[in-house]
Known about the structure:
329 residues; alpha/beta; Rossmann fold; 10 helices; 7 strands; 11% strand; binds nicotinamide-adenine-dinucleotide; binds magnesium ion
Amino acid sequence: MSDTTRRTFVTTAGLAAAAASALPALAQDTPPTPKAPTTPQAGAYPKPPFPNQRQPWPGLASRMSPRPDHGETSYKGSGRLTGKRALITGGDSGIGRAAAIAYAREGADVAINYLPAEEPDAREVVQLIEAEGRKAVAIPGDLRDEAFCRKLIVDATRALGGLDILVNNAARQQTRPDIGSISSEDFDATMKTNVYAPFWLSKAAVARMGPGAVIVFTSSEQAGDPSPDILEYAMSRAAVLNLAKGLAKQLAPKGIRVNAVTPGPFWTPLQVSGGATPEKLRMFGQSSPLGRPGQPAEIAGLYVAAVDPANSFSTGQIFGATGGGGQPG
Ligand code: NAD
Ligand code: MG
């Protein structure tokens, strides 16, 4: 222990002892504050370094090490979305899966979209939704195709008997070291998945939604503070944040709300299937003030809040879970 460290320690310990002896008798009788972590595992979530791993895109949550926590055993509902009908893109894994579990436990029927390669992850989510006694609808398909986006909204609305909630959550993120290595194919695929698809889906959904419906966009802290190695991805997160704010104003007279959620670093397949370099992945989340990545379970409550009818004055809002990093405005 260095001199400075020892001095700091002694000073702090001395202050604590002095404070304890100065406590009035009444305060000493007060029962201890219960230990209340925000989720059952909050104190024990994994920190970097993480084991080396790499999966082909789009990746599976079931093959990640450690496996992400999507709230499978921890999320408890309280009827906040009883009878609602929700479509979540990218609902097979990561943040979208956490939202799907939470919505089902809050009483909603849930349709998920994902890529055909993600069927094993999607099956797990379908089982989790059905275990709550809710209807689960699985609609695989590629969102880069406008015709598929329109069909997805039609099919989900038909299968659910209506559409109250659309969560535009699917995204593509592939790290590239410099602007010269981002091909036009890369740029196109990222924009089609992350910007065009949410636009196409929202357009088709609004035509079928009534008062009380809500659209949520997953954006990112990248919208306000872009990392240099995911340029076009960060652009796309800024674009949907802007769309959420503008669409909220446009749809307010119809009684349709629009909100955005902005995650910081989260432990999901997106990161292990090309979203981050091996070096970044190994220390993933370390640079956030909490010193670790978020687990999808830790953001599920914000997706519930963003659509909860009790929050009926909240439209055009940004709900953040950045682990202490900057929240885009
Ligand atoms: P994820 O890999 O679990 O989810 C992304 C999903 O996008 C995939 O499961 C896949 O189903 C879907 N997808 C991708 N391309 C598609 C296509 N062409 N057609 C249909 N579906 C497609 O990863 P995640 O991190 O949970 O990502 C969810 C959202 O969170 C994304 O919008 C992402 O931008 C955002 N986000 C993630 C982080 C993070 O650190 N993980 C940080 C900020 C924002
Ligand atoms: Mg997935």
